[in-house]
């Protein structure tokens, strides 16, 4: 299924699944997708969040502790 996406999107989906596994979740939810985007560290989403002065480290920390 991942092969139907661009390499960048495929990487983010893989990162998201790894984040879900790391947090011991048996699903990939929006929080894992956000962690995957943050982990990738590039792309329009991260640039947009940074432009809005969103603290990505704080978001990551909050997700990991819930």
From TrEMBL:
It holds the Pfam family Clp_N. The keyword DNA-binding does not apply. Gene3D superfamilies: Clp, N-terminal domain. Keywords: ATP-binding, Hydrolase, Nucleotide-binding, Protease. Residues 2-66 form the Clp R domain. SUPFAM superfamilies: Double Clp-N motif. One of its GO terms (molecular function) is peptidase activity. One of its GO terms (biological process) is proteolysis. This is ATP-dependent Clp protease ATP-binding subunit ClpC. It comes from termite gut metagenome.
